[in-house]
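To whoever is on call:

I kicked off a structure prediction for a single chain this morning and the downstream step that reads the tokens threw a length-mismatch warning. I double-checked the sequence; it's 124 residues and nothing unusual in it as far as I can see. Pasting both halves so you can look.
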Amino acid sequence: MSVAVHAADIQDRDGAALVLTKRTRALFPFIQRIFADGGYQGPRVAQAAANTGSWIVQIVKRNELHKFVVIPKRWIVERTLAWISRNRRLARDFERYTSTVAAFVRLAMIKIMLRRLTKSSDCA
């Protein structure tokens, strides 16, 4: 998992270059496609992905603005963000340093992954 936390005045499409780096590509060589919402649409994100290799950035758009419809790929991201937000320290932006927030996001994901791994081993 790669985490980049930046100031709120940085647009999503500009912040994508912080995550789509050669280091991230080296850590996750098996990833071929990246699903993103409309905030990541445009040439900047496409260029950041092209600079690191052969990633394909696929924009998953909403169907209608005023009607709730589950879109499979978009649901994965929304669900994961909801799971992360269950952690008290990540429910609000109280942290002073971005490195602290990034660490808590990593800890939240480790907690989720460990829970999944232990559930699967208990069933066997």
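Update from on-call: the warning came from a stale cache, not from the record. Cleared it. Sanity check on the structure: Residues 67-124 form one domain.
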